[in-house]
Amino acid sequence: MKFGTKNNLLLLKVLFIVLIVSIVFPLGISAENLKPIIKLEGTWKFTIGDDMLWADPFYNDTEWDKINVPGAWENNGYKDYNGFAWYRKKFSFSNVKTEEYLFLLMGYIDDVDEVYVNGHLVGSNGTFPPYVTTTYQTLRRYPVPMEILSPNGENLIAVRVYDEYLDGGIYNGPVGIYYDSDNSYLNLNLAGYWDFSTETPYSRQTSTFFDQKPNKIFVPDTWENQGFPDYDGRAVYKKQFRLTSSMNINDIILVLGYIDDIDEVY
After folding, report:
1. Which of 150, 142, 169 is nearest to 65 (CA)?
2. 163, 78 Cβ separation under 8 angstroms
3. How far is CA 27 from the centre of its chain?
4. Which pLDDT tens digit goes with each residue over 30-67?
5. DSSP letter at 27?
6. What is the pLDDT of residues 146-187, one digit of tens each?
7. Which of 6, 38, 245, 253 is paired with 261 by a 20 to 30 Å CA distance?
């Protein structure tokens, strides 16, 4: 590993290659030591059907039904309903510890979801019709940049859901906004969007999330959660960042969390 100096800054380029040979599931929240900031379980607005206007934070949802989250919608008055539905929830907060990224946990959703915060797509799991892929066993954990939030105003979460059969909706928690308390131990937090490429051509199977450019992926998270649900093989992550000259390089430890399955780091 080589370091160079320029304008009293140290530039470190990190590259690691991951070989995936099995399906990857996201880590439990205890492994990342996520701590709740805002609890969002309770009453949400709800309607069946599908209209992308419902992601707009200024849309008037006063005529929508109310539903308890978490809980399958079959247990909330929509017995035997399969298809599209939307949830909406407003929240406000203040005096929250500033983090580059907070995390929105939406619990477990049956079968497919897209999640919008203040009109911005922040995460998606599964595949919508016509070729449905369920991810009902996946804990939804989506990064939310502080720049799309209103710390001293009203915010809105809109969740688009498709259920193919049996129970549907946000059927289990936790549901809320969290931060990773482990970040307080880091000299430099490398969480965020990294350059990403697969060894073999693969077309991303999801819309672009907020603050995400082509060939970018959010770390930490599985690539299955970010538009690569069927990809197994080699991939390359790259991240460039700077360290201040006041930091002692001899005392630096690079922490890259959990990697499934095999990695090399340069």
Report:
1. 169
2. no
3. 12
4. 445 788 889 999 999 999 999 999 999 999 999 999 99
5. P
6. 889 988 889 999 999 999 999 999 999 999 999 887 776 777
7. 253
The residue among 205, 129, 140 whose CA lies nearest residue 169 is 140
* pTM for this predicted structure: 0.77
CA distance 201 to 179: 34
DSSP assignment letter at 187: S
Q: Which amino acid is at 30?
A: S
Q: Show Cβ contacts of residue 195 under 8 Å, excluding neighbours closer than 6 positions.
A: 215, 216, 236, 237, 238, 239
Which residues contact residue 203 at a Cβ distance below 8 angstroms, ignoring those fewer than 6 apart?
A: none
Distance CA 11, CA 195 (A): 17
By the 8 A CB rule, do 29 and 105 touch? yes
Peptide bond into 145 cis (omega under 30): no
- β-pairing, 4-6 vs 139-145, is unpaired
131 contacts 20 by C-beta, under 8 angstroms: no
Which one, of 66, 82, 106, 47, lies nearest residue 167 by Cα?
A: 82
Render 146-172 in DSSP notation, one character per residue.
Answer: GGGS-TTSEEEEEEEEEE-SSS-EEEE
Provide the 3-class DSSP secondary structure of residue 9.
strand
What is 45-89 written as a DSSP string? Answer: EEEES--GGGG-TT---TTSEEEEESS-GGGGT-TT--EEEEEEE
